[in-house]
C-alpha cells in the first residue's frame, strides 16, 4: 500500500482565477523519503496542506495510508492527522501558555495511539530535545521566550513524538544553524528508519535535497 496515493488532484484557492495545483499522479511508498522542491509560490505549502488533510482537493483523489481524505469529515481528519502524521509547518503553532516539554507532548494528548507509541512521554520528549540540542534549562519554561531556531526544534520534537507513520515538513530547518540542521536531519532519518516512517519534506535548501533519495520538482508534476 502506498502511504500517499494522489490521482488527478486539483486545488484552487478561493478568489484565484487559475488552479494552484493540478497533479495527475503522485505515489509515495512506506519508508520513502521524498523531497519536494519548487519556486516560491509554486504551491508546495498548499500541497502539504492537502496531504495533511487541512485542505481538501476540489476534485480528484487523495488517499493517505489507504484513507480517502475527502470522505472524512473535518473532525475525523483532525483525528487521523493526530494519530498518523507529524506535521512541521513554517509557523510552528506552539501553544504559548504551555512549557517546552508540554508542547512536545501535545500530540499524545490528542491521540491515544501516539501516546502508546511514545512510551514514557516525558522521557521521550527529553530524548528528542537532547538530540536536537535544546538546552535543558529551557524545557520547563514557556515557549514564548525562545528564539525562532529554538521554537523550531520544539516543533520538530513535537512532530516526531509517538512515531507517526507520515512526517510532513515545510521548511523545518530555515532558522537552524548548519550544525543543528544536520543534527535535525540525522534525527529525522534515524527516527524514520526505526519506525518505518515516510517523510515528505519541502525546502529551498539544496544541501538538504542531497540527503534525500527521491526528489520531485513541483513544476514537473504540477500542470495547472
Ligand atoms: N491562504 C491562502 N489564500 C489564498 N491564496 C493562497 C493562500 N496560501 C497560498 N495561496 C496562493 O497559492 C499559491 C501557492 O502558494 P504556496 O504557499 O503553496 O507556495 P510555496 O511554493 O509553498 O511558496 P514558498 O516557497 O514561498 O513558501 C500562491 O499563489 C499563493 O498566493
TrEMBL record:
Entry GO MF terms: ATP binding; ATP hydrolysis activity; transmembrane transporter activity
PROSITE patterns in the record: ABC_TRANSPORTER_1 (PS00211), ABC_TRANSPORTER_2 (PS50893)
Signal peptide range: none
Keywords recorded for this protein, A-Z: ATP-binding, Nucleotide-binding, Transport
Pfam families per UniProt: ABC_tran
GO CC, any one term: plasma membrane
Every ABC transporter domain range: 4-221
Superkingdom per UniProt: Bacteria
Protein name: ABC transporter related protein
